[in-house]
Amino acid sequence: MRRGRPGRRDAERGQAVIALVGLMTALTITFGLALDLGLAVDQTLALQRLAGDAARAGAEQLDTNAYRAGTVQLAAPRAQAAARRYLARFAPAVQAQVTAGPQEVDVTLERAMPTAFLRLVHLDHLPLRATATAHVVYGLPPAGGAP
């Protein structure tokens, strides 16, 4: 049997292996980014729902004395406390900022989401933030839609 220089077929086989390794690397990176970013979007939406629910819980706290006098407004300290109680019950590990005035309750939530794939590039957490505002609404909206 004759041994000589590698033929053209052997060289093509080596190129195919290199192309396959490159393709697998690209697919792994794509799936890893999709995993981390998909989880970030999902958790941001959950945080947004939580902020909205907490703001609405606070916006239910009407000032009954002002209401009896004919003014519809919030009891701001009670509204703030109600939003904080809601958050303490359903999201105790989330950093929250709650402000309440006579007509609205603002809730801002922040948390760090641990990553799975992005840890490889030393990005251990992604910051997530959601903000919601609930306004005092009195009566029913007009028949045509929004007030």
Work out the helicity level: 40-55%
* Structural category: alpha+beta
Main-sheet strand order equals 1-2-3
Number of helices: 3
Characterize the structure shown:
With 147 residues, the protein is α+β, with helices and mostly antiparallel strands. It has helices at 8-59, 64-68, 76-90; strands at residues 95-100, 104-114, 125-135. The chain has three helices and three strands. Strands 1-2-3 form a three-stranded antiparallel β-sheet. Helix 1 (8-59) packs antiparallel against helix 3. The protein starts with 7 loop residues before the first helix and ends in a 12-residue tail after the last strand. The model has no long low-confidence stretch (mean pLDDT 87).
Topology:
Layout: H1 8-59, H2 64-68, H3 76-90, E1 95-100, E2 104-114, E3 125-135
Antiparallel strand pairs: 1-2, 2-3
Brief digest:
With 147 residues, the chain is an alpha+beta fold. The protein contains three helices and three strands; from the N terminus they run αααβββ. Strands 1-2-3 form a three-stranded antiparallel sheet.
